[in-house]
Design a protein that fits this description.
Largest sheet: 2 strands, antiparallel
Radius of gyration: 16 Å
Number of strands: 2
Strand content: 5-15%
Strand order of the largest sheet: 1-2
């Protein structure tokens, strides 16, 4: 995706809108932008398959795992909470 939308452009947009991360977390803000764009490009694939497509082009031979899926469980009072 960076071939068509360079990361400098994404970083500039994030900076102008004040949404650039203040500290480095597991995934930089830029990755979130690319993931959302990829979700729009491939709406029929679902999150896990879109993530796989997104990281398929990475170099370096290191394996990038997909985001962990969090389970929702229902408590006794009927409210769902995340684990």
């Amino acid at each position: 995706m960076t071939k068509y939308l360079p990361f400098e452009l994404v970083d500039d947009a994030l900076t102008e809108t004040g949404k650039l991360q203040r500290r480095l977390r597991a995934l930089p803000s830029r990755v979130g932008v690319y993931f959302l764009l990829a979700l729009r490009l491939f709406p029929h694939l679902g999150y896990a398959n879109v993530w796989a497509k997104l990281v398929a082009g990475l170099d370096g031979g290191r394996r990038v795992s997909r985001p962990r899926r969090r389970r929702c469980v229902t408590s006794a009072d009927g409210w769902a909470r995340r684990r």
